[in-house]
Amino acid sequence: MAITQETLPCGDSRFSVYVNIRSRAMPHIRCQKRIKGLKTKAEATRKEKKLIQELSQRVAQEEGHGFTWRMIITKWAAEVAQPSYIEKSYNPTTIRDYVSMLHRWTESWLDRPATQITKGDGREVFNRVIEEGRSKAFQKRLKNTINMIYNWAIENRAIRGVSHSPVFGLKVVIKQDKRPEILKPHEIRKLLYEAKVQDHDWYYIWAMALLTGMRNGELYALRWDDIDFSVSLIKVERSYNFKMGEFKDTKAGYWRSVPISSELRSLLLEIKNQSKSEYVLPRHILWTGGKQAKILKMFCKSIDLPEIRFHTLRACFATQLIGSGVEPVKVMKICGWKDLKTLGVYLRLAGIDERGVTEGLNFLPSSNVDKQMQSLL
Fold this sequence. Notes:
Layout: E1 2-7, E2 13-22, E3 30-38, H1 41-63, H2 69-80, H3 92-105, H4 119-131, H5 136-155, H6 185-197, H7 203-212, H8 216-221, E4 227-228, E5 233-236, E6 239-241, E7 246-248, E8 256-259, H9 262-274, H10 285-288, H11 292-302, H12 312-323, H13 328-335, H14 340-350, H15 367-376
Antiparallel strand pairs: 1-2, 2-3, 4-5, 5-8, 6-7
Helix pairs in contact: 2-3, 6-7, 7-9, 7-12, 12-13, 12-14
């Protein structure tokens, strides 16, 4: 607050008043106003008192709307990152991923009071998500994340006067899931044969993915110390986060073992004879830059194979094992899946649940059936 005096060219004095009120609880809320041309200091003092009262009321009214969505996200991230937070343990990478996802997909909400974000705003966000063709799993994850953080803010009184998040009860319209592209056995052999013949830089990476079912980050983080040839096992206990440029635990959060087949053993020994690194697979700059999917798609296109994603190599591993008769529970253990829902996707792709179940339907007429029908007639 300030009262300033200005002397005009004619010698008279004029006063101006400036008042600036900022909320202590919510520093982003600020109201300010200036009045010029007042003839006396007494008048300026009266105006100052009136402005202080007026702007203080306005700030109080703005405070009633609560924190902005950006501030809610920031407060949640800071709170759950504390070691003392006991409700649920969050990996730092998970927190960063949630914050990044919300900043991208709810960008139009960030500087608005969270209490003023409506279900219509939620629908706009998901319309954009659907238009960009994001998967059903991603849409569910985004909705769950918004609900989780918004509800956390309600419970902690950072949001008042609202009982539900903007996406609560929102029915997400999902386009029909397409059947994931999976390579058939002869296509897998063609992929590896062509990569080997052409001495492709990624041959060993693709072969390891198809023979172990390991995830992209797990392959990148694999060291020779993780391989025990004496018991024919690979210990998978860490992964690499390409976004953050750091090593972390596996996606499931626990280590697992992958059996070394005779074919995989030969491949590993071939790699070892050429390697001088602590890491099993070559550290291609494009791999470090997260371009593995693009490289694989380009190569598949060049040899007339379906343009699959890198993660599909893991799916090929799983479906081929299941299709060849390996118990699904064993495949689940090797691949490091936490729940049966994920396993169900690969069971459907392999088709073993459905195979042969309709064999007992004898509906079509045969010669014996024809004779029986004629005798009845």
